[in-house]
Write a structure and sequence with these properties.
Blueprint: E1 2-3, E2 11-18, E3 22-28, E4 36-41, E5 58-63, E6 71-76, E7 80-85, E8 90-94, E9 109-114, E10 123-128, E11 132-137, E12 142-147, E13 162-167, E14 174-179, E15 183-189, E16 195-201, E17 216-221, E18 232-237, E19 241-246, E20 249-254, E21 288-289, E22 292-293
Antiparallel strand pairs: 1-2, 2-3, 3-4, 4-5, 6-7, 7-8, 8-9, 10-11, 11-12, 12-13, 14-15, 15-16, 16-17, 18-19, 19-20, 21-22
Length: 294
């Protein structure tokens, strides 16, 4: 569709991302070759990328300044933002209390700033948690994580936070990633071929799908026949729940306190045996918010 930042000519938004209290839109304005990022909502930590010291909320979409190149992807964490350009450069801005911006410090940024440590590894995909980030980068399916690690969501086998992107060692080449508030999902190459869903991080609501309510500090395969009989088409994470599309079926597990699992129950589910739409829904793309699924 189109929207009208600052009430000028209509612009086409091709991609949206939502943080806790702010929104990002990837926009083609028709006058320039390169796409731009517009942002609105809360700006308490500079997550709108206006480049000034203002922390006032912004009701109208405003262009983020300082990103060099054609932007192809945007993503938002709880109180921070990021964008990826066509050449694989990653820019981050906003809250940096846990080092989630990846610049080696804990200083907030109000202007998009390139993550220089990844300059030799072009970024293809990003996933933002509440206070951490994961990217898929380089030609070998490597993933890098950084930021808050209180629940082991960085996947390094410990609880130490990282201020710069750090490669996750204990996983095969990865094709796709998704992040919840404090947990991670990745589709990785299996030992005998095919792809395997691996999860790690916070598991207190069963969102990892391992049949327990405990945290996991390293990537761990989800063992469920329903998820290996057909290829996983897409996956998405809410704050404390996870959804995957397998063939034409949608599976969900984790926090069900707001019925966000779509399984006609509000109980937490720590496995992935149930389908929320088996035989009734065709899905090729999915979006999950903190406590809802689309």
């Amino acid at each position: 569709g189109s929207f009208n930042p600052n009430y000028q000519q209509p612009l086409e938004a091709t991609y949206l991302a939502c943080g806790d209290y702010h929104t990002l839109a990837l926009v083609n304005d028709g006058n320039h070759k390169d796409a731009s990022v517009y942002a609105w909502g809360s700006n308490m930590f500079g997550q709108l990328g206006t480049g000034d010291d203002s922390t006032f909320d912004q009701g109208d979409p405003k262009k983020c300044e300082g990103i060099v190149g054609n932007i192809i992807l945007v993503s938002a964490g709880g109180m921070f933002s990021c964008a990826v350009t066509e050449d694989g450069s990653l820019y981050t801005w906003g809250c940096n209390s846990e080092g989630q911006l990846g610049h080696g410090d804990r200083k907030d940024r109000s202007k998009p700033t390139k993550v220089v440590i990844l300059e030799s590894e072009p970024v293809f995909d990003v996933a933002c948690g509440d206070e951490f980030m994961c990217v898929l980068a380089g030609d070998n399916g490597n993933i890098y994580t950084w930021g808050n690690n209180a629940c082991g969501q960085l996947g390094h086998g410990d609880l130490d936070s990282r201020l710069v992107p750090t490669r996750v060692q204990h996983i095969n080449p990865v094709r796709s990633i998704a992040a919840g508030s404090a947990h991670m999902c990745a589709l990785a190459l299996g030992e005998s071929g095919g792809e395997v869903l691996q999860t790690w991080g916070a598991g207190g609501k069963g969102q990892l799908g391992h049949g327990t309510f405990t945290n996991v500090l390293l990537p761990k395969p989800v063992k469920c026949d329903n998820l290996v009989e057909k290829a996983i088409c897409s996956m998405a994470c809410g704050a404390h729940h996870t959804c995957v599309v397998v063939g034409e079926d949608l599976y969900a597990w984790g926090d069900g306190s707001y019925k966000q699992l779509g399984t006609l129950t509000d109980d937490d589910n720590n496995d992935n045996g149930g389908s929320a739409g088996k035989g009734r829904r065709k899905s090729v793309r999915m979006s999950v918010a903190n406590a809802m699924s689309l």
